[in-house]
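Entry 14. Ran structure prediction on the chain below.
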Amino acid sequence: MSKIAFVTGGTGFIGSHLVESLIDWGYSEIRCLVRSKPKWLTDLDVVQINGSIDDDALILKALNGTDHVFHVGAMTRARTWPPLYDANVISTINLVRAAAHSGVSKVCVISSLAVAGHTNQLIADESTPCHPISMYGKSKLKMEQALKDIDLPIVILRPPVVYGPRDRDLLTFFAAVNRGFCVMPKNDSGLTLIYVKDLARGIIESIKSDQTTGKTYYIGSQTTTISWTELQHAIESALKKKSRMIHLPRSLIMPLGTISEYAGMIFGAYPPLNREKAREILYATKQCSSDKAFKDFGYQSSVTLHQGIEETITWYQSHGWLK
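Output, structure tokens:
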């Protein structure tokens, strides 16, 4: 495939797997925006564009001759609204407008299931009205809405929880099972998961298809609902260990999020468990259907839960993330 790709967020968890997939798909050149350190891109055959997405001249130079833009980079959490708005809305608009100016053929923008928020549907699809709960979800929805006004072929993907090698978010759950116990809210309805390599492939398939232009898709796995108990058992099977599930009363989730957030302030950090995340745990839709993605561009997940968990644990152990 003699095409040039430009990737934001390529040094991160999802982006680095996407870059590896782009190499496998035969892109002739892959340009990756690198803010500081190349991280997972260090040994890959890519062109590193060192700088910030807010550097307009740098971005225009990077986009010169580019065929496809994959905008994966984003800010996932912040204490206040302005940083999220700047990172997820303003920066995205500026990037896509620059892409249009540069004659880019198509752009794929990664959004999130977080845009769905609190709905009346257990499983969200593209017809589900969006009522995001978190500032992150609200910023992603505003981003999507702003992109409608830009005259350029764009496809937007909304993945649910993504797991796989290099992921640190679900690592805490893996580590808890490894220690022999894990904690989850009572009466949780489960979640949709997507293995990172399935997502990377789906991203590329979506930008290659003529059917996806101007559309938005949820993209998860064929198994729409995974219970936390099923996830626990899959991890136990791969680790060859047993663990105990502790079901936490839902009334304690928000207090724990509040305590965690204020504790983080003491150390100058904004922890993954905070008040916004607590609200999402309690009230947000955590499941989605990929039926539209299958219908329009043939997307199907290919990695089973047990395969994905085994590959993830093998990677965690080989890199000392799980002992």
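The two ends are 41 Å apart (CA to CA). Will compare against last week's run tomorrow.
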